[in-house]
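Consortium newsletter contribution from the modelling node. Members have asked for a concrete example of what our holo predictions look like. Here is one, prepared for the adenosine-5'-diphosphate complex that several groups have been discussing at recent meetings.
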Amino acid sequence: MRILTGVQPSGQLHWGNYFGAMKPIIDTQAQGETFVFVAQYHALTTVHDAAALRQATRDVALDFLACGLDPAKACLFRQADVPEVHELAWLLSVVTPMGLLERCHSYKDKLARGLPASHGLFAYPVLMAADILLYQSDEVPVGRDQKQHVEVTRDIAAKFNQTFGEVFKLPQPRIAETVAVIPGLDGQKMSKSYGNTIGLFDDPKEVKAKIMRIATDSTPLEAPKDPDACRVFALYRLFADEAETEAMRQNYLRGGYGYGHAKKALFEIYQRKMAPFRERRAALAAHPEEVEAALRAGAERARAVARQTLAAARRAVGLD
Ligand code: ADP
Ligand code: TRP
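And here is the predicted structure:
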């Protein structure tokens, strides 16, 4: 079983990225073969600042390692260290129907937000398909917003196999249903594009201020409250274990427990759960050469697999 996911280095990682993408893969890194990469080429569709890209690439790698990704168990690498992905993207693009890409929500959303319609933005799902298929991935853990891209990958793989012969395995998206969409400060999906995020390693003071600003309804302190209608509860349960979640649920239902109490509890559990990660991150940041060595070793392992798949694809189309 091969599991693969990519994370774009296009800004500070937030809780949505962690619970939607990082944690599920870190939790299962010892089962089967796990590949995690920093999706620099995808980030380039929106980040046009070399220093920012470099910095964010380092940050993503640090964040993954700090949050418990073990490079001895999982293969962690930079997308740009495996150039084979571009050749495969081209081989896939010749069997990718325009209509398939035109239907992608993510592309349409980006245009609606005012991003110029570049070829890179349009072809983004083909490059993502190449990422996934290059490693013959079985499962791709992603947030719900990326599910369509994995479905597009399956369509492209099927079309390639049908046209040129069986080369690719069809991957499955893996969505952690309980945490499918992490709400942001305003209740919309937490996303850096909406400016409603809480960073994983933000300054605690800033995190606290953001939590305190979360809008809640006007139910008085004494009255019972509906935990399932409250954003603070939704965020609390991400960090909490079952018993902690249940205790918090009872606080809401019982009444006499205000949203201010819940926000304080959310900040405390965040601090407690993140403390070991923060320490590890600081330790790693002090030794960039170790992080670099882990990334290079990861790229070497990834490339060995990538070369095999690319050779099979080249043979299938008649480029051998
Ligand atoms: P953003 O929406 O902030 O731009 P990305 O698109 O870079 O985040 O997402 C990186 C990964 O994190 C993807 O797998 C994505 O599905 C996941 N993710 C991002 N935001 C959320 C969220 N609010 N809930 C669940 N998963 C998310
Ligand atoms: N498009 C993904 C995102 O924005 C990042 C990504 C690129 C990815 N290639 C991938 C995710 C391959 C999973 C598999 O989150």
